[in-house]
Amino acid sequence: MKKLVFLFLTVAFFYAPTCFAQSKSSVEIKSFLLKGEVRDGQTNLPISKVNVEILGGQYTTTNGQGRFVVSAKIGDELVIKSDDFVTVYHTVKKNDFITIKVENAKTATAPIPSKRSLETGQGGFRVYLDSAKFYLKKDAQKSIEYVTKAMEPKSGKTITKKENALALETLGDINFFWALPDLAVENYKQSIENGAGTDVTIKLAKAFSQNKNYQESLSTFQNLLNATLSANQMAEVFEGLGDTYKAIGEGVKSVFNYQKALDIAKDNKIIPKITNLNSKIGETYAQSGALNEAEEYFDNSLKLAKKENKQRAVSEKNKVADFYNQNREYEKEIQLREETLKELNSMQTGTTVEDEALTPQRQNYKIANAFVAQEKYKQAIPYLEKSIAEADKKEDLIVQKDAVRKLSEIYRDIGEFDKATESYQRYVEVVDELYVKKEQEISQAARFSKEITEKQNRIASLENDRKLKESRYKLAFENQELVQTNNRIQRWVIISLAVIVLLLIFAAYAQYKNVKQQKLANNLLALKSLRSQMNPHFIFNALNSVNSFIAVNDERTANKYLTDFSLLMRSVLENSEEDFIPLQKEIELLELYVKLEHFRFKDKFDYKISIDESIALNEFVIPPMLLQPYVENAVWHGLRYKDQRGFLEINFQQINSETIKISIIDDGIGRSKSKEFKTENQKKQKSKGMGNTEKRIAILNEMYKDKVDVNVENVFENNEGTRVELILKKD
């Protein structure tokens, strides 16, 4: 008996992630009036005239009290936008009054150029560049906008090569920080062409390495060693060489260069670099398997980091704790992470830690993993519960998912199957929520990439304009014979602009076609996703039937049921990758499924399947597993709760050569009573199949012009019995 229970849980754990990953409620999502307000994150004052938009829906603005009302649905994405602050994207989760706090640019301390400096061009460039640097790590778009303004020509003044080099260097710094190394490489190259110095060349070498152009990075760093460098620059170059050699797996060369950089840093008392280099040497030795040497350098980095600040100290402790984990020194790891937790808690009120690993939820999770590695399961459980609570409070779905899954596995391993199942259900819910969040992040990343590219193109255009104007100024001092050449250049510019206009028109047309193709691709992806949910959903419900046989000690019946079920599961999985299957195959699957359900509830109902002989079954195709959820609904929510023996009738009737009607009729308790009964017993059964089926039919009808029509109605006047009629078209 225990072996069968264990087998059931093992199979359920194997199939359930796919089954529940994207399960949704079948209840129709209705619109409602969402109310909220927008406030300054620093002063908490309301902000008026803010653009508030539901993506693909309504648009409004905030009133004088910073409040707004807009029609929305659960899951909609709310966009709060203004030139005065960073755009905020908020997902509507429930119909509650919401408060959006924004980072208001007007209250920040970014430099603002005076009107006179902008009119004369004196000081405007430097102020705009300082503003760009101010927003560099906060808002990439705003930072790039200031670089653009700095590079725009002012009245009666042209930008110099030196200024252009500084602007392009700043643009490279922005792209490097926001992980766009390919753009950063081009920016730094252009900056060097305009006369930038050694520091920019060092940045270029680092950008090459981040962009995985390792040979170019090594070549650039090695060429720098032949130049005249300051002590700090020399340390930077050797550190950069060490980073690049580490990236390509050459540990010996990496340590050699790190050691040179460390010697220079010690000689010149560059304290932060000494700490970082000790840490990097420790990491490289650890990767190479030289554990004693690695531990020595990590000890140095820990001691040095404590002397700097708490943020640097906790970062280093986390890194060394990871090293102890890799070497199975779990007690040392746990001790370091406990210290890290205490310091993080003391820092929460005043300090922001950028490293996502340095959060209480992540540290608690890693401590729990260390206990699990030692098979100290009960000691791990409190840390996992702390991790889950912290992650839920901070909306860290990734850590919450991992911690809940780990907790479920622990309960399973120690034999507490009820808690294991409960934790696993929580895991499924978190995975579902994480999937939605990832979709939104992908959408936001696409918007971010598009906006950055547009601004980058604007700057490239300004650079081209600057070069063109520089050429014109030079030509003005040339002989009058070059006037004709000047005219030809102007005509070329006009032609180029005309070509650009044509290209823009072509790009707009291409974008229109791409949107249509993307819509089709999204529909196909949605169908595949919903189809992939149906099979695990059915398997999970069938395994619940096996579990019920096991629960009453009917092992022989469970074995017989499993034998028939395996035949059905094999047929279902064989058709799982097909968009459509012949109607004949769907009927065979349905007959086997009804047989299994009748096998379990044989005292509850009889059934009959009638097929019109005139139907050419192989000429009609149907999405796999389309009918099964309706039959399942009839059995589980209608016939199962009936006091007397019920009857299920499934008819396939030909209307004409192109259309057939499929009827699924039961004399069960009816939909109204089923809902009341389900409310009282909602913990016993949660049907997920109907929602997916309705979505599949909606997408199919959109793609194939009303291929399937569905009508559900009561059979008897007392609202008992249910009739489902599906009209299936051939084409």
From TrEMBL:
<dbReference type="InterPro" id="IPR050640">
    <property type="entry name" value="Bact_2-comp_sensor_kinase"/>
</dbReference>
<dbReference type="InterPro" id="IPR008969">
    <property type="entry name" value="CarboxyPept-like_regulatory"/>
</dbReference>
<keyword id="KW-0175">Coiled coil</keyword>
<dbReference type="InterPro" id="IPR019734">
    <property type="entry name" value="TPR_rpt"/>
</dbReference>
<keyword id="KW-0802">TPR repeat</keyword>
<keyword id="KW-0472">Membrane</keyword>
<feature type="repeat" description="TPR">
    <location>
        <begin position="401"/>
        <end position="434"/>
    </location>
</feature>
<feature type="domain" description="Signal transduction histidine kinase internal region">
    <location>
        <begin position="527"/>
        <end position="605"/>
    </location>
</feature>
<feature type="transmembrane region" description="Helical">
    <location>
        <begin position="492"/>
        <end position="510"/>
    </location>
</feature>
<dbReference type="Pfam" id="PF06580">
    <property type="entry name" value="His_kinase"/>
</dbReference>
<feature type="signal peptide">
    <location>
        <begin position="1"/>
        <end position="21"/>
    </location>
</feature>
<keyword id="KW-1133">Transmembrane helix</keyword>
<dbReference type="Pfam" id="PF13181">
    <property type="entry name" value="TPR_8"/>
</dbReference>
<protein>
    <submittedName>
        <fullName>Histidine kinase</fullName>
    </submittedName>
</protein>
<keyword id="KW-0732">Signal</keyword>
<keyword id="KW-0808">Transferase</keyword>
<dbReference type="InterPro" id="IPR011990">
    <property type="entry name" value="TPR-like_helical_dom_sf"/>
</dbReference>
<dbReference type="InterPro" id="IPR036890">
    <property type="entry name" value="HATPase_C_sf"/>
</dbReference>
<feature type="coiled-coil region">
    <location>
        <begin position="445"/>
        <end position="472"/>
    </location>
</feature>
<feature type="repeat" description="TPR">
    <location>
        <begin position="235"/>
        <end position="268"/>
    </location>
</feature>
<keyword id="KW-0418">Kinase</keyword>
<keyword id="KW-0812">Transmembrane</keyword>
<feature type="coiled-coil region">
    <location>
        <begin position="313"/>
        <end position="347"/>
    </location>
</feature>
<dbReference type="GO" id="GO:0016301">
    <property type="term" value="F:kinase activity"/>
</dbReference>
<feature type="repeat" description="TPR">
    <location>
        <begin position="275"/>
        <end position="308"/>
    </location>
</feature>
<dbReference type="InterPro" id="IPR010559">
    <property type="entry name" value="Sig_transdc_His_kin_internal"/>
</dbReference>
